[in-house]
Design goal:
homodimer; about 350 residues; alpha/beta; DNA-binding
Amino acid sequence: MKRKPNTETAAAAPARAVTKEDVARAAGVSHITVSRVINTPEKVSPETRARVESFIASMGYIPNMLAGGLASRRTRIVAAIVPTISHSIFAETVRGLSEKLSEQGYQLLLGQTNYSEMEETALVEAFIGRRVDGLVLTGVQHTARTRQRLKAAGIPVVETWDLTDTPIDMLVGFDNHAAGRAMGDYLIGKGYRRLAFIGGEDPRGIARFTGMRDAVLAHGAREPVHIKIPLGSFLRSGRDAIGSLLRDHPEVDAVFFSNDVIAAGAALECIRREIRVPEQIALAGFANLELAPEVTPALTTVQISGHQIGLNTAEMLLARFNGQHVAQPVCDLGYSIIEREST
Amino acid sequence: MKRKPNTETAAAAPARAVTKEDVARAAGVSHITVSRVINTPEKVSPETRARVESFIASMGYIPNMLAGGLASRRTRIVAAIVPTISHSIFAETVRGLSEKLSEQGYQLLLGQTNYSEMEETALVEAFIGRRVDGLVLTGVQHTARTRQRLKAAGIPVVETWDLTDTPIDMLVGFDNHAAGRAMGDYLIGKGYRRLAFIGGEDPRGIARFTGMRDAVLAHGAREPVHIKIPLGSFLRSGRDAIGSLLRDHPEVDAVFFSNDVIAAGAALECIRREIRVPEQIALAGFANLELAPEVTPALTTVQISGHQIGLNTAEMLLARFNGQHVAQPVCDLGYSIIEREST
DNA sequence: GTGAAAGCGCTAACAC
DNA sequence: GTGTTAGCGCTTTCAC
């Protein structure tokens, strides 16, 4: 076999990475042929392809996608921005996204806002700077600057976890207000009249509350008690909140929580205090997390799927990337009440 | 018609993004000056800087970090590979990583292996192809190919969640075997003699089990029962597993779980069956997750911090990026037994 | 089927 | 302080 002057030496040198040029030289072809072997192997003769492939393997060549992205204007990177990855609902969405995207060689860049719109804007700018092929946002409420940057960048965007009449581009979610209303209707239907809502004040939590309140008021029941807890709350907040509620509003007969984790915290507190659920007080959660059916009593909740949101989002993005027209840019995944023992 | 420069300001043109050149032309300077305004503003005269900055803002210029990364060989991207983002322990690590890294303008690329070493290898190659500045791995067990690729790439690597004498590069974790041993010692010390372990068969779960077994055998107690459950298990698996254990091994007086989630599942099952914990059977978890102190009875567990692992990992990486020498490439975060009601 | 030329948008030297 | 000259490693277009 003949090779041009010492081109090998690629062994374990952190000095310079192996390039297409190196492989091309070793294989005695031009670098464009190496490129074809990797991207469009069917356009290369079998013999050439085999030889090039063997050199790629032996030299440990890994294409520089940075250079590729710069030249092709496609990075094959999608960015996802969530309030926090610690909350299992968002973690599930991210899991679904990452799973689906990686099937097609796309990678996921992750950003956390801590529920701050400013942080979101900063992340959007950073991700646009990295020329991501698509961007996934949580919620539908964003700063004017975010919208403007996204518009200017002209990349596919998917908003998630909510619904709106004015999406930036695409949307995968469900109607939080309607879901809250459905829960309100359900609780009223079960005979509860003195309701309360415990949740954080993010836009979706607020929508769930107002939906529930609208339903309750429509039925002529009294205005629900609204207990606000910090954003990104967990079990502990649920325990504490139900504690204050029981103390300050002993007449309340049913509580709707903005998610299952805080509802579960409340359920655990009720067990500890030997308060009978739902006889003394009914509890209802949101999201149907893994925890919901497992606590005692099992939680009535609103079924939605964070994982499905991730999968659908990925599919819509991939369709766009593949040049397909997305006929339905808004995907309403809906919700349903799951009745269990806690109500 | 010839290709025309396109100097106009970016109103909402998806055609071509604003470049340094565009800004430079508008401001009447060379593009390198724009570059300086962004990267080393102190090297530009205040007047020039102000003028350039105003054009950057008005034109909505966002630097192309792809091009910058190609030229500078620094992408300011770190990749993290975890078994699954759905498990809160890993989510916490990722949260810590992302928080700390973003403070310095670094972004996080996320990959999930589903506990497969092959997937890990594929991800490592993909991330190296994207020329990430650093790579974070979960665990210390990797394919030969992973190690070799990482060696050749010569980038900073941090292995996490475990300890080893032969790290690839840096390490932030704790000794799973010793932690398991400590729990074994503790349970023996409390008078339990017929122990069991319930957990998944990932390397760290296995280490926790063998550690616990070693301790138990050293004390002359009998070989612990070992119940294996699927990787990535949640509450449900804990319930099911404790069910089979109670049926098949009614003599067992204490169970050590490979994490708090499955332990909590078991605790919930015990509540439901009205089995008294710890009188009839003692339960101990691992990781001191948020759930551990909240279930009834509160879980004895091994305290470690996934979030801290993320923070320390990010700090070591950043130190390396900033050219500092990391004196302690191995960071043992330790562990401690937290005694609660369940034992 | 294969190759040459021309960038992609930026930073790293080195000049002025 | 500011500009000039070279690339970074790849894909694209068009030629053969």
